[in-house]
């Protein structure tokens, strides 16, 4: 990861919090920053946000790997709102907006006077001499991962880039705001837009930490799962692979399949952050997420972000033109 000077216009407000829990959390953060001093930029995440006014935005479901997935999620939420409203004017506006999203790649729409924007967040992982940073002792880690409510798992959160933060969060923002992709590791347009975003969106909000699985392969740690809301969800993805996926797709011997099942059982009992089996090594990795802001609001998708899928109705039209999908207005033959 490349770091420059703090971007012009960046403002970080600090609010000292003296409660015991916060003191332990900030001490934990300082220790880990020393043990894992290197930050690497990862793949972006996409979602959508609603402008609440006065610089505040409500962020929804920042979980998608591509902008079109986030557009589809926004369209789905608007359809839910349409089903619930009795206001004919709002219903007409929601219907028209939904049709636009079904046919066009648009990253901002206005409904009932509020802007809805497709947003992009940068992800980062800390690395030290022994590899990526695992979960911290102070991180929430409920056993019932599927019941843990995190906006990154589908709930909502209200963010304000001008709101004060604690010391540890402020220090992390100082590290992340000027960060961009290294020139040598990405295409030229990705690098240029990453550098430009530092200046065009100089402020930011740190979102709840995420967790992913990394595997040590050929002397380097490689991501092997999507980021999820809790460390336990990441463990469960490993257990699923060991118990179900690998035995069905990896063609292991009976002894190898038994070794994977035993490793899954051991991980379930210990809730460890690292597991090794048959020469393979996996680690739960901590992922930081930064939503960049300008004076106009959160950053949207960049032109260089992969966005291969067309909107749904445009895709259906392509399939019909290719003869791969029947025309909805053409009567279909009934078969006995």
From TrEMBL:
Pfam families: DUF5954 (PF19379). Residues 124-144, 292-315 are annotated as: Disordered. It comes from the Bacteria. This is LigA protein. It comes from Micromonospora narathiwatensis. The lineage of its organism: Bacteria, Bacillati, Actinomycetota, Actinomycetes, Micromonosporales.
